[in-house]
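[agent] plan:
  1. take the single chain provided in the ticket
  2. run structure prediction with default settings
  3. attach structure tokens to the ticket
  4. add a short note for the reviewer (M.T.)
[agent] executing step 1
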Amino acid sequence: MAYANGSGVLPEKLRGGRNFTYSIAPIVQMAVRRTPSAKNKALGRPVSMADLARELGVSMTTISRALSNHHSIGAATKLAVHKLAKKRNYQPNHLAAALRKGHSKLIGVVIPYIEGRFFASVVHGIESAASRAGFSVIICQSNEDVVQERKNLDTLLGAQVAGILLSVSRTTHDFKHFEKVRNHGVPLVFFDRMLEGESLNAVVLNDREGARQATQHLLEQGCRRVAHLAGPQHLNIYKNRLQGYLDALASHGLTPDQHLIRECNMTQEGGQECMAQLLALPGPPDAVFSAGDSAILGALQLLKSRGLRVPQDVALVGFSNEALTQVTEPMLTSVDQRCEEMGQSAFRLFMDLVEAGDTPPVQRQVVLQPELFVRASSLREL
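[agent] step 2 finished; step 3 output follows
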């Protein structure tokens, strides 16, 4: 480290405005040893607060306070710290700060999967609302596995998130691991999927009404043997969609045929398998309403492979209004779940819980209304 005056005097930096005199050789050695950029680059790690403190010869507390513009740090010191932080491309570690303070501006989100439009759009809604409120979002996937879901919750609690927003996995059957979140005093908000029989803070769709509208539409197209691909009945969404299907049949004076109701894992392969079973019946269906879009896509593929026409031979309606519904031939009728609005509402409910503080909790459910998007897969010429 050479100085323009050639005197071997370290320019005024921090320490109360005093100058310190060193011999030039030790200063050069100190610069080579302590400048973090080359070392960090070689190690492949980011510049830390400790690196900045070593280079400026001050404590980490001074660096931390200077970066947060604390009133106890002088203007010259703040300027020197910010200038070096920018030069070294220092990025603050918000998670570490949260762990030190015992709280954070982080929200944890747990979803069954990220593929497709629905959960991706819900997360987008959460992130946009969270960003406006000064929060960041950590996203975890359970991959429809309750074991992974438990690990996700442990990870988020370890990160000391301010709250957790969650849609349960298809294999979740009990509430025990969610009690752990409650016991930590962390606000917990469910969206879309939750367990039946629990009093919870949640944002859900009126799934029963959406299913009723979908089945009603098929009946209005002249269909009379309407089958239903039902999801796991321990989850609220699939239980309510089955009930909506039954409501529509009852309103038309039709008695449900249990052979036309098939529990499905809501995958494309599951839809193909269930459609094959339905076609093998002595009285096959003339329409199918599925509780999910992936399964109805599988049904469409199976029908085409058998040379059957959609909707002339079998009309089809799905649920979720995924992007895939608009690229099939024919395009698929589906119930829209207002996914982005669901994400924003879930975050607002979390904020309501935070603002309520120690007030005795009142469990709230926000219910969004569905919309049926009618496309060619269900429209018959009457």
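[agent] step 4 note for reviewer: The domain at 102-205+339-368 is CATH 3.40.50.2300 (Rossmann fold).
[agent] ticket updated
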